[in-house]
């Protein structure tokens, strides 16, 4: 909200048809009366009822309150009341609380650069009281009585003693009574209350030690008990369904501590509504840090969706400036790089060390609404779209002849390996707890999978030799596109292309970051036409392409020649690859970082090199793919963020078959 907007708005109240009033002759420069100064400040600080709630909550938290009661009527239009059990204000100081630039929180310039409280500007109460009827009742625990101060028409009444519990209650009535323009801008009560509710959450999340209740028009809307467990507060405040799919993050580096909770990729939303960022307990918005959160999910969610993340950042208050924004929701870091890297590292580390395979949510085949399992999340919780899986499975059972036992389970582990309670089916350990260390020559395994993949007659599979004992052993390929494999606690369905794409990507990435890829000289250079715009893009990526083993030279004025191409990508046609790459890069604009370029090139390479749907795989090839799955990072999703794997647990099956 622009400074001085109250005044501007009151001018806009003139009937629109009327010509602009004559600008009166210049007046002498004069100091504005305090009431007007306050209203101007209010234009910045008090945008809507929720802004009042924010300021009052901050004051209560600064006062060390452990219990807060927020009472709202008619969206905050008629009443906002916040009671706290904090330190209270001595009777003599109470009227000062409403004075402009009056604060107990800072005293010197040095203090301004090491803010440890939520407030410090000393203008909130003055601003609020300039556009409403405000009443404060406050008492310090040691005092025998409380004090009452009222502000009516911008006049502060002298304090009067009154009975009161320890703490402070501030009541704000008739908000914007004196600023009709602002009042007119208020939305419906429900909308305004929605903003208030959000404000209360923003104070509640970083302050689990404070019990908070919120009511609207006499109805209790939120009741958050005090707790020492931040996770419990998150789950109470944002919903228990969400909580079940959050992963804790915790990293302290370079004096910056990052704690909090991030959502499983499958939880990602269309908007960033569920991204909360707190700096030393203060809710902030920061483009760079939001970018870090998103970046941590690169390749795990689709580019248009937004992860769920509640991040509590703590660092030395000297290392950032809060005094850049009237509502204090933006800060300026002395070194923005540190927080960015720490947030990114904290989240990425957690994501990479977690099993992110989404659970299949089954909808009964009759098309009835899902008989939600008790653990299933409620509405609004995005789940993996099961329709595709259902379709595939349904097709499978409808059309397929009974799978040949030797094909499907020809490599079944000997029954004696079965755990005693696992029932008749052997459950080999598909996900080793300690995946073998990555070896350079692992790549050849995958390459050989890619290289060997050819449509081949079914009978070939019968002759398949037994796979290495370490790999997963119960699996079947369906529709030459999906792999169904048994796991410890159920089964997984894998999209063979998506998984192979991820494996290729990770392998290439590891390779490239270790040393430049080796290019192989083409016997006959592949020539392709190029436009001037493509040429410009090409110049920016040439050095990176060289590192990847792709050498491109000018051929003539309108064409270029691919001279060498990485031997690793022997399955990829160089001409088509370069053409598509240039097209994509043009589309992405010219401000790409090296990292983005690398991702783009590897994305394309892995997509083009990976096994497509429609290819039959031998048991050996499947085993090699599945074994790789456990060794690469982020194997739950392909480089574009789509899932590679869906999981169905025995528990779910038993529920679905009504055995439980
Ligand atoms: P600021 O919070 O920036 O200091 P405010 O206008 O919000 O400015 O509050 C002015 C002063 O009133 C605070 O510095 C604090 O001393 C006192 N105050 C306001 N609210 C409370 C409260 N709930 N409990 C105790 N003191 C309060
Ligand atoms: Mg304040």
Give a brief rundown of this model.
By secondary structure, the protein is α+β, with helices and mostly antiparallel strands. The protein contains 21 helices and 23 strands. Strands 1, 2, 3, 4, 5, 6, 7, 8 and 9 form a 9-stranded mixed β-sheet that branches. Strands 10-11-14-12-13 form a 5-stranded mixed β-sheet, sandwiched between helices.
Which tags fit this structure?
disordered N terminus; 4 domains; alpha+beta; Heat Shock Protein 90; binds magnesium ion; 34% helix; formyl-coa transferase, domain 3; Ribosomal Protein S5, domain 2; 660 residues; 21 helices; binds adenosine-5'-diphosphate
What is the secondary structure topology, with strand pairs?
Elements: H1 5-12, H2 34-45, H3 49-62, E1 67-73, E2 79-84, H4 109-112, H5 124-130, E3 133-139, E4 146-152, E5 155-156, E6 160-162, E7 167-173, H6 180-185, H7 189-204, E8 211-216, E9 219-224, H8 230-238, H9 240-244, E10 246-253, E11 256-263, E12 275-279, E13 282-283, H10 287-296, E14 309-314, E15 320-321, E16 332-333, H11 337-352, H12 386-399, H13 405-409, H14 442-452, H15 459-462, E17 475-478, E18 482-487, E19 490-495, H16 496-514, E20 519-529, H17 532-547, E21 551-556, E22 559-566, H18 574-588, H19 594-609, H20 619-629, E23 645-649, H21 650-656
The protein binds adenosine-5'-diphosphate (ADP) and magnesium ion (MG).
């Amino acid at each position: 909200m622009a400074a001085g907007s109250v005044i501007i708005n009151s001018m806009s109240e003139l009937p629109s048809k009327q010509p602009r009033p004559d600008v009166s002759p210049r007046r002498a420069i004069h100091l504005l009366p305090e009431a007007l100064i306050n209203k101007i400040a209010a234009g910045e600080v008090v945008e809507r009822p929720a802004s009042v709630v924010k300021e009052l909550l901050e004051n209560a938290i600064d006062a060390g309150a452990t219990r807060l009661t927020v009472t709202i009527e008619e969206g905050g239009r008629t009443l906002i009341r916040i009671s706290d059990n904090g330190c209270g204000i001595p009777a003599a100081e109470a009227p000062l609380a409403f004075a402009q630039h009056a604060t107990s929180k800072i005293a010197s310039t040095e203090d301004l650069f090491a803010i440890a409280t939520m407030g410090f500007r000393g203008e909130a109460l003055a601003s609020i009281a300039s556009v409403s009827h405000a009443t404060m009742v406050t008492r310090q625990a040691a005092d025998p009585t409380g004090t009452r101060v009222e502000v009516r028409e911008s006049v502060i009444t002298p304090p009067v003693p009154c009975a009161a519990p320890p703490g402070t209650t501030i009541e704000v009535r008739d908000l914007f009574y004196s600023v009709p323009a602002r009042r007119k801008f208020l939305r419906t009560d429900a909308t305004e209350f929605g903003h208030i509710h959000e404000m209360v959450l923003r104070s509640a999340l970083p302050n689990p030690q404070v019990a908070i209740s919120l009511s609207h028009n006499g109805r209790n809307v939120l009741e958050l008990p005090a707790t020492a467990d931040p996770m419990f507060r998150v789950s109470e405040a944002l919903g228990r369904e969400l909580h079940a799919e959050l992963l804790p993050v915790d990293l302290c580096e370079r004096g910056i501590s990052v704690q909090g909770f991030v959502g499983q990729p499958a939880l990602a939303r269309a908007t960033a509504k569920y991204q909360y960022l707190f700096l030393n307990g203060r809710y902030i918005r920061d483009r760079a840090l939001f970018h870090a959160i998103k970046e941590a999910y690169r390749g795990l969610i689709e580019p248009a969706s937004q992860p769920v993340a509640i991040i509590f950042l703590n660092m030395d208050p000297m290392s950032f400036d809060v005094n850049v924004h009237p509502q204090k929701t933006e800060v300026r870091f002395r070194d923005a790089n540190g927080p960015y890297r720490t947030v990114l590292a904290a989240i990425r580390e957690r994501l990479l060390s977690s099993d992110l395979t989404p659970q299949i949510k089954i909808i009964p085949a009759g098309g009835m609404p899902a008989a939600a399992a008790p653990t299933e999340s409620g509405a609004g919780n995005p789940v993996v779209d099961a329709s595709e899986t259902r379709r595939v499975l349904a097709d499978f059972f409808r059309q397929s002849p009974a799978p040949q036992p030797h094909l499907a389970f020809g490599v079944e582990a000997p029954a004696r390996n079965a755990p005693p309670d696992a029932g008749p089916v052997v459950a080999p350990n598909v996900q080793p707890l300690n995946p073998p260390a990555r070896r350079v020559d692992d790549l050849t395994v995958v390459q050989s999978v890619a290289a060997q993949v050819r449509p081949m007659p079914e009978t070939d599979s019968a002759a398949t030799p037994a796979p290495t004992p370490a790999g997963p052993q119960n699996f079947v390929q369906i529709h030459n596109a999906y792999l169904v494999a048994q796991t410890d606690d159920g089964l997984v369905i894998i999209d063979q292309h998506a998984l192979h794409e991820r494996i290729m990507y990770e392998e290439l990435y590891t390779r490239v970051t270790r040393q430049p890829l080796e290019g192989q000289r083409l016997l006959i250079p592949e020539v392709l036409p190029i436009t001037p715009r493509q040429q410009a893009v090409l110049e920016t990526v040439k050095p990176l392409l060289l590192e990847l083993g792709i050498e491109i030279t000018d051929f003539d004025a309108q064409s270029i020649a691919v001279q060498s191409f990485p031997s690793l990508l022997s399955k990829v046609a160089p001409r088509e690859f370069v053409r598509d790459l240039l097209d994509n890069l043009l589309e992405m604009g010219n401000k790409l970082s090296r990292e983005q370029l690398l991702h783009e090139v590897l994305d394309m390479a892995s997509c083009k090199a990976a096994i497509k749907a429609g290819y039959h795989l031998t048991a050996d090839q499947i085993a090699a793919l599945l074994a790789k799955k456990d060794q690469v990072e982020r194997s739950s999703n392909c480089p574009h963020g789509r899932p590679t794997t869906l999981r169905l647990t025995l528990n779910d099956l038993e529920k679905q078959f009504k055995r439980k």
